[in-house]
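Thread amino acids onto this structure.
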């Protein structure tokens, strides 16, 4: 599998080198083709990486029947824990409490392991990157599994929140901000960074990773009391009997999670299909406040998926901040938003702040206002500065012709990145010619229309799942659901027709 990745990377960069030799970047047409080729190659690599796994081969080799729950003797568990211990700074000792926890999860909590294995595709790459940045053990990624089940919006009865279950005060201590719209305890990256800093400090205090975990759960005060009651012992297993009852089970739970996510295939536990892999995400930072409904209206991106991939936002409004707020989404959706950025902010203003495009007038200035045009000022050379309101059917070329200016001038005056316009948009134009064109009432920007395509169907095959069918046709599960309303996605039959276009 690793050789496959290296081969993919080698072929990818070899292709780029070949393209560089053939394409002249000075040509706009060739440059666009070159960039498109790079993006397509990267997306194919990300998709291949996201779908890769090694559990199928292990389960096939073990010849397990569907639903089989394997059982092993204690010596097998202890041998596997010893192998993990050799590669870990944690004391993953084969203690009775650890064995009992592993056996319980392997028999009674198999669905939980399946679910978190699926969710791990979205978070573990990022966890490992952050842990490496702080020179921390990779096994700490399993801590979020027992803290939150890898659910960034889960909140405990005590008020702990996020993947790493920060209390409000602890979050503040590590610079996680909260206001009416944002709670950074639910921000996967910022909360992970804070957790790394916190865990690093705890390890510096105790010099023992198992005690650091106990302190993460119970607080340093309770661990210090337990150490004193133990007579000054310095390892977790020696101190454990003096810890609070919940914390006594915390490290065994951590070790059991690490064990089962390492040996899940041997236990015939097949991970749940991942909705999306971290490698398939991109980001876009926003210049102004935006409602998620606006993003959905302009791009057709499902609002529930926007919320799921951006849990830091408590509501469906993303405020303007400094530094800017960013949103995560699938590569295709973010690419679409970037290309429609001007329309995005214009639609937001048209819906929620319809007067935002009105340019403030200098004092004592006379104004001539008609249906379609506002003359803001005229200088000594007879050049008027005009606000032109776009009407249905107008393009930049047509507007440029009206005022006897160029398209590039209009784009420069209005800081436009694309030529896409919307009905009701105000454009500033400097011209010697003013034509007042009557228009009907202001309308919201027209929705982005997808090209009409012929319907296409796929027949379900043995082993297919809804998510696999979506991935096979480069779609999200949400998109596939929209094409197949009323279908039971958890119970597909061989030969069943699924619409994929």
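Threaded sequence (501 positions):
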């Amino acid at each position: 599998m690793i050789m496959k990745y290296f081969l993919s990377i080698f072929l990818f960069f070899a292709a780029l080198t070949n393209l560089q030799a053939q394409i002249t970047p000075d040509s706009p047409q060739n440059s666009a083709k070159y960039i498109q080729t790079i993006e397509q190659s990267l997306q194919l690599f990300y998709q291949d990486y996201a779908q890769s796994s090694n559990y199928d081969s292990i389960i096939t080799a073990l010849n397990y029947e569907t639903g089989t729950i394997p059982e092993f003797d204690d010596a097998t568990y202890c041998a596997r824990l010893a192998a993990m211990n050799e590669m870990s700074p944690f004391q993953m000792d084969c203690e009775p409490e650890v064995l009992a926890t592993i056996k319980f999860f392997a028999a009674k909590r198999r669905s939980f392991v399946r679910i978190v294995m699926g969710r791990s595709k979205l978070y573990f790459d990022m966890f490992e990157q952050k842990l490496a940045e702080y020179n921390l053990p990779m096994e700490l990624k399993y801590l979020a599994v027992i803290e939150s089940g890898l659910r960034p919006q889960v909140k405990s009865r005590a008020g702990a929140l996020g993947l790493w279950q920060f209390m409000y005060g602890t979050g503040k201590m590590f610079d996680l901000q909260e206001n009416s719209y944002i709670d950074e305890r639910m921000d996967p990256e910022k909360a992970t960074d804070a957790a790394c800093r916190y865990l690093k400090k705890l390890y510096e205090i105790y010099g023992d990773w198992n005690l650091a975990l106990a302190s993460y759960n119970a607080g340093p005060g309770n661990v210090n009391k337990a150490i004193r009651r133990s007579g000054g012992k310095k390892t977790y297993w020696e101190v454990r009997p003096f810890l609070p009852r919940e914390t006594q089970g915390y490290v065994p739970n951590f070790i059991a999670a690490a064990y089962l996510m390492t040996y899940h295939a041997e236990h015939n536990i097949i991970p749940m299909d991942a909705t999306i892999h971290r490698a398939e995400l991109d980001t876009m930072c926003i210049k102004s406040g935006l409602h998620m409904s606006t993003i959905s209206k302009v791009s057709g991106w499902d609002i529930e998926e926007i919320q799921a991939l951006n849990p830091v936002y408590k509501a469906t409004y993303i405020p303007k901040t400094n530094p800017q707020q960013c949103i995560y989404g699938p590569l295709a959706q973010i690419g679409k938003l970037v290309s429609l950025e001007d329309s995005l902010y214009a639609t937001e203003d048209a819906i929620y702040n319809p007067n935002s495009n009105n340019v403030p007038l200098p004092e004592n200035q006379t104004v001539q206002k008609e249906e379609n045009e506002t003359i803001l000022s005229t200088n000594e050379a007879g050049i008027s500065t005009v606000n032109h309101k776009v009407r249905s059917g107008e393009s930049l070329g047509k507007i440029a012709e009206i005022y006897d200016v160029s398209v590039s001038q209009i784009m420069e005056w209005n800081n436009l990145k694309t030529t896409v316009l919307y009905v009701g948009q105000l454009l500033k134009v400097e011209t010697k010619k003013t034509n007042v064109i009557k228009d009907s009432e202001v309308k919201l920007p027209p929705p982005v229309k997808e090209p009409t395509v012929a319907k296409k169907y796929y027949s379900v095959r043995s082993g297919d799942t809804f998510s696999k069918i979506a991935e096979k046709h480069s779609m999200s599960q949400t998109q596939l659901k929209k094409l197949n309303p009323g279908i039971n996605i958890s119970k597909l039959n061989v030969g069943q027709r699924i619409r994929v276009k």
